[in-house]
Amino acid sequence: MRKLHYASGYLLLADQTCKALLRYARALAQSGESDVVMVPTITEGGSRASTHLLIGPASQLFSTPVENASEEPFDLSVVRELERRTAELHPTRPAWPEEMTDVDTVEFDFDYGI
Hints:
This protein is 27% helix and 26% strand.
């Protein structure tokens, strides 16, 4: 699990969701666009929730690992959607193998349903 620092606080996200979100935020910034996304998170009380984030060129996001984290709020469909949106902004499908190497990347076919 990772803390995604956003505005004056943070959200708790699954590792792979956080990585996909940061990649999408960068793609939006590079294209000068913004978007609202919904991601699964853990609340301060420990329950699961869906969080809406506005991300774009002015987003100042960073993530840090959470030690001894409980079960992550992982949803593969959210990661797929973020990666699909990233691929739409960067159709050449850039590879970022040296980024966030402590988080595995979900491998799937970007050509589904497009």
